[in-house]
Design a protein that fits this description.
mainly alpha; 2 helices
Length: 52
């Protein structure tokens, strides 16, 4: 068998970390994992002017 062995404890630690991060940022109305999918953030970026 060629490949990496993945511990189930590692997977559960990662999912609980992501759940905590999503819960905290979501409580403040912030999209923590995919912030650039927020239409308001994209629109603000498009309105930026380039300083020369």
């Amino acid at each position: 068998m060629c490949g990496m062995l993945v511990s189930t404890k590692n997977i559960s630690d990662q999912s609980s970390y992501l759940a905590k991060e999503e819960s905290i940022t979501g409580g403040f109305g912030i999209e923590g994992r995919y912030p650039f999918l927020d239409k308001a953030v994209v629109q603000e970026f498009l309105w930026l002017k380039i300083l020369s």
